[in-house]
Amino acid sequence: MMGGATARVPAKINLHLGVGPLREDGYHELNTVFCALSLYDDVTVRAADEFSVTVRGEGQHDVPADATNLAARAVAAIAEYAQVPDPQVAIEIEKQIPVAGGMAGGSADAAGALLAAARLWRLDTGREELHDLAASLGSDVPFSLLGGAALGTNRGEELLPVLHRGELHWVIVAAKGGLSTPAVYHELDRLRAGRGETVPPPERPDELIVALASGDVHAVAPLLHNDLQPAALSLQPRLRRTLRAGGEAGALAGIVSGSGPTCVFLCDGEDAAISVATELSGLGVAKAVRTAHGPVPGARLIPAH
Ligand code: ATP
Questions:
Q1: How confident is the model over 29-74, as pLDDT tens digits?
Q2: Measuring from atom 16 of ligand 1, which residue has the nearest CA?
Q3: Which of 41, 109, 140, 227 is catalytic?
Q4: Which residue has its alpha carbon closest to ligand 1 atom 24?
Q5: Which of 30, 32, 48, 200 could form a disulfide with 90 if both were Cys (CB 3.0 to 4.6 A apart)?
């Protein structure tokens, strides 16, 4: 029997997402606080005679089942880096993370594929090498490896762990339809240009970092912030209704997650999250409503499927 390895990787949300001006290299300078939530994709990499990608679960038909899949690109990158003589694999992805939802689902799969391939081929790839490979695949991939809570700078790939006391409880509302991350950044640039604003570099959200260390959900709630939210709302105005509905249902605060359109709501404990999720489920504003907690660890190996 041919060997295989499985990695489990969490979704991310941005508790703070500060977006600076558009740089000459086409990226925006970010200052963000990531948090990994208990919503996972499982990625299995097996030795095979023929290359294949199989995707099951949440949004499976919206994910490419070929070499353009981020997990496949990750396997190719680590195979080339480590000069694996026979890198043919079958990749299986079980998705819980909404596709094109602003929760870094593709990045999670890339991080999981790196870890699973390294185990399959028994590579002794160090933490820093994995981080560099991850950063070459996408700005969010290093955080998917790291997990927990972390401050992200530059394009979001330079990470510093943040102290996050206790567990926070969230409701995740996956919208009908997705949003393309580049389209949301373009919209932000368009809105800013229309206002003739000079955009300052993003600042470190010190107040939020102190609140996270205190573990006080009531201190954290008013400090959630996303510079991309106006752009996501401009492209999908119906998200305003979702955000309002979350507040009315009893959430302490709600924001668009990353580039959206997933909205996340911070609640005062697990019971409150269940009650908010139940109420939002009944409104029909979303494709799926679920609860999750965080922070949780980043990509890790689990017994092979
Ligand atoms: P982010 O939060 O990192 O900006 P996202 O969560 O908004 O990303 P993804 O779910 O990563 O978006 O998907 C973005 C696009 O990437 C999808 O529309 C899909 O076509 C493509 N894609 C490639 N590989 C994958 C994968 N393994 N999982 C999900 N999407 C993938």
A1: 999 999 999 999 999 999 999 999 999 998 899 999 999 999 999 9
A2: 106
A3: 140
A4: 69
A5: 48
